[in-house]
């Protein structure tokens, strides 16, 4: 049997000498949920662009050992390296934005503590939940790149420490530009897109954006929920860059 309904995930360190070792969660999925057994074939991604055809050799309670039969594909990243930063909203909204944005091809995701933040997200269990959600997303939509999920960071701290690491910083604003500068969406660009929580970004934060050369981007006249705004801006940028 060939299990084709989904990809499985194993980080690079789980590949050794022509074998791949699935962790307990992936092992449970393939053996108990999908009823995989020795001799069955499946596809596994290493999260860094490669997918492999594998064959189950042995199944244990917390591990499945499989032989790597062939490399199926080595996929390049999208034309632009896009990090999505999002102000804290309800967990379900964050998880939805992350899931849909991964399907589109973001490279990284981070949560931002902003002036209008009214919810707490300091619990490590919540971060692990997002990391697991990211793995589920790449498996279900059969993507080969696993985005990095960064811990919560203060918006101003992020701009000061990391703002210079990007060719462009874009933030959503109703009175912003209809499209970003072309230099920010050229192939090979590394950009970050920032979406505010309920209430958007404060005047002080917009002043800080200006200090770091950030560009405001309008998503049109409609009033959008935070997760909808996040997916909309990611979609627009990938359309402009030619990735979708």
Task: Summarize the structure in words.
By secondary structure, the protein is of the alpha/beta class. It folds into two domains: 2-74, Beta Barrel (Ribosomal Protein L25, Chain P); 81-241, Alpha/beta knot, CATH 3.40.1280.10. It has six helices and twelve strands. It is elongated and about 60 Å long. The two termini are 33 Å apart. The model has no long low-confidence stretch (mean pLDDT 92).
State the separation between the terminal residues, measured CA to CA.
33 Å
Backbone structural class: alpha/beta
**Approximate helicity band:** 25-40%
Q: How many individual domains?
A: 2
CATH level 3 topology of the largest domain: Alpha/beta knot
CATH superfamily of the largest domain: SPOUT methyltransferase, trefoil knot domain
Order of helices and strands: EEEHEEEEHEHEHEEHEH
CATH architectural grouping of the largest domain? 3-Layer(aba) Sandwich
**What is the strand content?**
25-35%
Strand order of the largest sheet: 1-4-5-6-3-2
The total count of strands amounts to 12
Largest sheet: 6 strands, mixed
Overall pLDDT: 92
CATH class of the largest domain: Alpha Beta
């Amino acid at each position: 049997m060939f299990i084709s309904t989904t990809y499985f995930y194993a980080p690079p360190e789980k590949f050794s000498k022509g074998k791949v070792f699935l962790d307990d969660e992936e092992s449970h999925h393939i053996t108990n949920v999908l009823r995989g057994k020795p001799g069955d074939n499946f596809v596994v991604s290493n999260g860094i662009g490669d997918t492999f055809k594998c064959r189950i050799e042995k199944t244990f309670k917390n591990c499945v050992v499989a032989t790597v039969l062939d490399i199926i594909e080595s996929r390049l990243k999208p034309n632009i390296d896009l990090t999505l930063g999002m102000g804290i909203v309800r967990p379900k909204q964050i998880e939805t934005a992350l899931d849909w944005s991964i399907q589109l091809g973001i490279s990284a995701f981070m949560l931002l503590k902003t002036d209008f933040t009214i919810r707490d997200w300091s619990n490590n269990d919540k971060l692990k939940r997002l990391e697991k959600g990211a793995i589920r997303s790449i498996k279900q939509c059969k993507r080969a790149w696993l985005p990095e999920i960064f811990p919560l960071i203060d918006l101003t701290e992020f701009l000061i420490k990391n703002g210079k690491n990007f060719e462009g910083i874009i933030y959503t604003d109703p009175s912003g530009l209809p499209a970003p500068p072309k230099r920010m969406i050229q192939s090979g660009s590394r950009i970050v897109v920032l979406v505010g929580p309920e209430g958007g970004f404060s005047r002080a934060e917009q002043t800080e954006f200006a200090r770091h050369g950030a560009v405001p981007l309008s998503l049109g006249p409609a009033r959008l929920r935070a997760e909808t705004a996040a997916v909309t801006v990611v979609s627009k940028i990938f359309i402009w860059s030619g990735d979708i």
